[in-house]
Structure formats: C-alpha cells, structure tokens
Amino acid sequence: MRKDFAPVAARVNAKINIGLQIVRKRDDGYHDLQTVFYPTDFFTDDLRISPCDEEVRFVLDSGEDLGDSENNLCVKAFRLLQKDFGISGVEIFLRKGIPTGAGLGGGSADAAFTLKLLADIFQLPVTEEKLEEYALQLGSDVPFFLRNQPVYATGRGEVMTPIELDLSSYRLKIVKPDIHVSTKEAYAGIVPMESNIFLPNVLQQDIRTWRDLVVNDFEASVFAKHPELREIKEGFYRDGALYASMSGSGSAVFGIFRQ
Question: CA triplet 35, 102, 217: central angle to 5 degrees?
Fold first, then answer.
C-alpha cells in the first residue's frame, strides 16, 4: 500500500521513572517490576515521515542514509505494520535530542510515535488496543508512549494503570553524563525483593516525603560502579531539589525543584 501524503512530523518526548522496584525474577528470564512512568519534554526527538519512492528509507540526524537501519526501532515499527497492512513508500527522518543509554526511553518513544504516525497516514483500521499490541512487540515500555500519561507500571512494565500525578508546577532538571550503563550490568547487581510500598499512594503524599520512601533499586549497584552519578544526585539535593533519582537503569539523573 503506497500513498501520496504530506510530510507529517512529531516532537517525541521522553519519560522518567519515579521509583523503580525489582520485585522478582520470572521464569522467562525477565523481571517483574513496579515503577511510575512520567512523560517529560525536557529532552525531545524530532520525527518526520515523508513519502518516498523506496519501500522504506531511514535517515538519522545528518540527513545521510544509513546502510543497515533494520535494527532501528522506527524501522522495526514500520516492518510490523508493513507485514499486516502492506504499507510502503516512506522516509523516516529522526533527529535525536533524547540521550541514548539514559533510562529516558528515547528509542521506545521513537518507535511508539512511528506507529502512531504510520497508522494515521495510512488510515489503518487498528484500535488503540491493537496498536499497543504492536508496541509491546518492540519493547516493554513502548506502549507507554502511545498513552503518554502518568501510569503505574507492573509486570515487565507493560501492565499500566493510569494515575493522577501532575508535576507541572515544579521544575524538572535532568543530567545525562557521558556514562553508559548497560541493562545487563544494572540487573547484575539487583537482588529482587517484594516491596511494602505502593507507589501510587506514596506519590500522593507531599513531594518532600518521597526522598525517604521512593527508591530506584538500581541505584545501589550502579552508584557503586559510577560514583559520579551519586554525586549528581547529591548535588541536586544540595541545590534544593525536593526529590532526585536516577531514571530507569541510568545513567540520567533527575531532580524536581520548586519553580
């Protein structure tokens, strides 16, 4: 299915994890977790889809074609929809602003926005639920970016319950140092443990109480290997942050401040 259409663009946002508890290792090798995904536009990517005379072309940042782009999540998103609907003839242009390897979900967000744009461009007969099924094939947190509202996430991160959480009256700052923390490295230092903290309830309390109650289980082992990350977090608190944490498995660290 080819279609003439005007180029369509989107500003792709990131997310932060507020609290992240690893509660058990599953038989399938994954881990069950509890976290809150919160969308943020502190960093953004620019995504544009345009018609082209090739099946699919992926262009990153500089405008140069990439030789092997099939592993990019945007192209994988295209392939999922192409398989079921035969779509074709698109150029996917991506300008990165969300740091990679940061725990901010940039690649997942790009994939989700690609799915949404392609579904709209080709007017595909897919429900929101079906689009989330496609998204889950690309990654556990990809469906979150289809909703793009604060959620309490369990399972691998794909079981999402909307929650009331509005941080718009606060100022968010995120620092991504030149440190890469692999997911494998982060999980290697984790001992899964059930938690008696129910995050949605705790996050309704005064934000100043979060510091003692809302934890990211990855911090202990990751900070031990990369003390610079602990210093960033402590620096946020010295500067007056009401709450600070590493996001996901790192290496981005965020602080929430009064305006």
Answer: 40
